[in-house]
Amino acid sequence: ALINLGYLRVRKDGILEYIIGTQEGIKKFIEIVEPYVLMKKAQINLLKKIIVQKSKIKCRKDFNDLARLIDTFRNLNYSKKRKVRTLTP
Question: Which Gene3D superfamilies match (predicted)?
Fold first, then answer.
């Protein structure tokens, strides 16, 4: 891969995924792409908070706070109106 932070994987549906296996790799990836992000700024900002919070877990309350942030992230990406479209020749 061009940025050497992970590897490409082809899903069964033909979509390419870039897999980054370390938090340091994720942080570096965010630094690289953040200036170019137009539509997912809220997700980028929340992901940075999640990474910081994850490193500060000392008790159950810290873990629950992290879980709430992750739920918020999930809700930002969830779409009830998502439609699966296929191209036909």
Answer: Homing endonucleases
